[in-house]
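Worked example 2:
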Amino acid sequence: MIRQLTGRSVLILFISLSGLLLGCAKDSGNDPDPQLDFREYKLFNYSSGSEAEAGSFRIDQLRDGNAKLTISLNEPYRQDGTAFDAVINTRDEADNELVFSYLGSVDGKSGKLVINPVVSSGSNLPVKYSDLIGKSGFYVKVMNGANVQARGEIK
């Protein structure tokens, strides 16, 4: 009886450990890797007529080569109960503003938004990190309705 109980206990322990190890699957390609590149940029608010630092955004290279974007608004530019639309924009030859990627809504209370991965609005496909940081004339814009809450250039 004791030997049988011990055998079952060992079997249960073995099955539990096997399940635990099988559950630890390889990480997806959507995780930032400290070995990979990233860029940090500042966001500015111009509503007072002069440039005021309103927060920052960071673009991380993911293991699969795609880009992750994190927006953080500074405390004075947050509004509890408000969601700010965020986009990556550029301009065409006629100086018309074009949406490259709709990022979603920045939470007004926390001032945070994380997009993993960044997706192109035109193709609905993930954007490669090297393509995003290599673009000229692209910028992140955080909108409060029709007003620009914050804006920052991707350089």
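The chain has one domain: 38-153. Residues 38-153 form a domain with the Immunoglobulin-like fold (CATH 2.60.40.200).
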